[in-house]
Write the structure tokens for this entry.
Amino acid sequence: MNYETVVGLEIHSELSTVTKMYCGCATSFGSEPNIHCCPVCLAMPGALPVLNKTAVEFAIKAGLAMNCAITRSGKQDRKNYFYPDLPKAYQISQLDTPLCVGGYIDITVGDEVKRIRINRIHIEEDAGKLLHEAGGGTLVDFNRGGTPLIEIVTEPDIRSSEEARLFLESVKAILEYIEVSDCKMEQGSLRCDVNVSVRPAGQTEFGTRTEMKNVNSFRSAVRAIDFESKRQIEELEYGGTIVQETRKWNDDKGESYPMRGKEEAQDYRYFPDPDLVQIVVDDEMLERIKSSLPELPDARKARYVGDYGLTRYDAEQITNSRCLADFFEKAVSGGVSPKAVGNWIIGDISKILNEKSMEAGDIPFLPEQLAKLVTLIEEGVISNTAGKKVLDELFENPRDPELIVKEKGLVQISDEGALKAVVVQIIDANPQSVADYKAGKEKAVTFLVGQTMRATKGQGNPQMLNKLIKEELDSR
Amino acid sequence: MNYYDLTAHEIHDLLVGKEATSEEITKSVITRIDSVDDKVEAYLARTSEAAIEAAKRVDAKITRGERIGALEGVPMAFKDNLCTNGVKTTCSSRMLETFVPFYDAFVVKKVNEGGSPVLGKLNMDEFAMGSSTENSYFQKTRNPYDLQKVPGGSSGGSAAAVSAGSAVFTLGSDTGGSIRQPASFCGVVGMKPTYGLVSRFGCIAFASSLDQIGPLTKDVTDCANVLNTIVGHDPADSTSLNVSKVDYTKALVNDVKGLKIGVATDYLQDGVNDEVKAAVLAALDVFRSLGATVGEYTMKAAKYALPAYYIISGAEASSNLARFDGIRYGHRTESFDNLKELYENSRSEGFGDEVKRRIMVGTYALSSGYYDAYYKKAQKVRTVICNDFKEQFEKYDFIVTPTTMATAFTFGEKTGSPLEMYLNDLCTVSVNIAGLPGISIPCGFDGGGMPIGLQIIGRTLGEEMVLRAAYTFEQNTQFHKHRAIIGEKEGRSV
């Protein structure tokens, strides 16, 4: 039987506010433990929370960017449970009045645009971190405790791990564009819970779902969904049933397992936090936030397709990172071919970034220098191959590409007379190739181009060499 | 006349007139504590040296010819749920037996800025839960009027200290009557301001939506002066009201002519002690004789107020007290093998019975499946009570009830029955539920010489009307001038 996988996501993203959600302590990563703490975020007796207005604005910004309606009068609720990383023994969250409701994000799957609906976005605070010591014992670091988070909850509209990955990338891109989160998964600023169910293809009602926690990267999300849908299908195929449960994803083992009954069966005893007042979003505030929204990835994508003639796929590759897109726009602003710049960015630059585990923001050279590189190739001053050498050099020791070309002797030889002499010399030395060509073997040309390139130390203009070799062969 | 018997405004006059120094007055009160506190046991911690130093600073200021504030140089003390930087703050709980805050409560800061020498910290029911101060982990505070009787609670230490002359004024907290009821039992003035008027920052929370800090004083004038000192917007408390500053002493006007008084008859029928009833009716006659009119009404949902109060306050307490988990501060058990045992044993050992009872009731009320039947329904009762008060205040300028249905009871009399203990809050809880200002002032004594309290309730932010009514009553009666004679009735040991 064919099965369809149904996925819903709950994405937690730390907001990049300067201070924590309910106190004046700095939000930080990697500081010495328990440095950014105060009576409020340590839940000392008598301390009271005061809501960070910027966190509310950031959440509303995210909601607007994801096409949500904004709740004009909301409350905050206490989610009660004991754990050493939660000093108040309750997390302040939002139960039934999330700040943002009912939005969507469009993703491109193959050639089709697919709409993933968003159920809600609410604000809550992060917990501290437990450090289990090798010799037993556990330490708590409260630096992260009280960092503002948004939780984005989707409708069950995602149908594959690939769609989930595309959606997560879109969410990350939007949050980066609107500058409310740095979305650094490795620092835990973007995490998600994954809900998965399967159903026979064509069936309209949903199957029983399971929820997976501890999914901490896009790659883990993809693997966790694939693992869980496979597990559920196998279970059903062997006549079993799916139990609604919470499972924990183990990324090292690449599998999930059910959390113990107690971990799961929590009664959080939510109730409105009496220490806090209503969050009121007035017209003025909403308008101000609306007008502060930058151009979003979708709009940019459309512009790149329309104005620059990029394919939708290429445009998406670039616009998925605001840094990359900004870099692209600066590079093409001088008038070089957007298509060529785009190819460099999606191709070699992305490849090098990947190899070096760098982010788009870490590109060490200037967009203008990439534009110069493209111009040098377009004008035939250097070959494409030489261009790659220049790019490597730009990553190593960024400077004017023209200078690099001179220093490294990468200038392309386009002098027809000089190239002709080399061609004649090489053909003379390879009578077998001439015979092959005459016998109809076109591959002989490729071989001869290679030989002439070697003779010119890679500086011969390949198009011209190709043309000259064919002319010379035909004339013999 | 001993200095320790004086009111704050009388002391202020002596200081300004250079008839006494703050040091002399502060030492007089310290000596008083030395001589009576082994009987009254109001104090948990004393900071006499710091108080004398503070007094000397005020005296120096006076010598330099500088002006002093109304409470400057007037020695006072705090209920032990108000955080004091560097001084143990226990909430009368084993859980916080060794807890020393590294920050001051907002009101502590205000009092310090106001220049009052601070004498120490006062006993209370554990985590402010109780009506007799018998729930303190550390000691029993006795009623200065009769050492065999309770001082009321939960601010029993704060009321007893003022009544005994062991502090000129004190601060307490009132969640369901915890300032007014002990004030009534101990024959002093106690006021719970409008919810949000005084910042709760640094007051160890019992029930966040009901807690309010207020003064316990020897008369209404002192009450107004203390309010002037502790009222003010605090950005660190989200529920702190941002209203323009009022000089409450301007409300001390001896005139109620033409004012309309509402009497909630619910508290003058079944269950009220005859002598209490007579005293309240006599008080109403005083108001009538001064030109006020009196109308009677019955409260809507009167019988639901107490259950709603115990559900809401329990629910909030169950969550507020969850932070006492033995992890970061407070009592940690010595016997545990895992996290669950660490939590369970620390909390079992650290909390007393009444605190556990409230946590359990509150946890139950918030549990899935019971939330609607209890917490949500209690919130509905809350709305009904608020609206009822609003309606009454369209007709009346202030409302009068007895503060309690009876005068102070003897030790152990009600500890066997939590419900009977809870009934002590009958007349006072509605005021917290609606967030209104309420005061208790002395209005008589029963046959055994125990004080009777009159409660005056005002509309939201109606502190001035409440003070005016209380002041007028005081100016036309003598009850507030009475002082307890400690040991007059020798208590059997309890």
